[in-house]
Structure prediction request, 233 residues.
Amino acid sequence: MRFHPEILMEDGDILVCRKPAGVPVQTGRTGQPDLERVLKNYRALKKEPPEIYIVHRLDQPVEGVMVFAKNRKAAASLSKQIQEKGVGKYYYAVTEGVVEPREGTLTDFLMRDGKSNTSRVVAEGTKNAKKAVLSYRRIQSLEGKSLVEICLHTGRHHQIRVQMAHAGYPLIGDRKYSTGCGEIYMPVGLCSVRIEFLHPSTGKRIEYDMAPQGEAFQLFGEIRQNFTDKSLN
Prediction:
């Protein structure tokens, strides 16, 4: 699959773009394009140093807005913000069922299985388990499905997908964590809709957002009116 990067913003320090669903951020597989490689080629074609630094990730099936650093100084600044929970990461998800209560916080402990590339909820105190926290708000429910806004407070492997499934509301199209996907393929109903951070050089608070484009969100078509696909500042 070939694609051109959709750049939302770019300067000498950072690059904000859309990640399409189905494209990995980074992969070692020969012949499989990933976003890191595409962005390096994009910079090379502009006669720029082909440097791209990954400071956060999205699962391969997930679409959404991402920020990359273009130099080591910017990468260090963004990585520090993420470690200190200074980066805001917001998602829209489409789940099976009507999510109740309408809003709340999920706190679980997750164990990752590298062999199966999955994570699962385990008891607190389990060796090597990591605490996972997210807050959510149900925006709308239609036809037995819910559109939910999620704010991540930690960044664990498959966190949203695992926690929502454990709570009884698996994401539409998620074949790893849902048993009700059926025979028809649909991309996972999850999109990184907004990212907030301090610019590495200016210190200015920056916000970028994008409207979900995946099939799962078509039921809630009016949500596209809430997005401008440009900086909110």
Observations:
- Residues 72-83 form the longest helix (12 residues).
- Helices lie at 35-45, 72-83, 159-166.
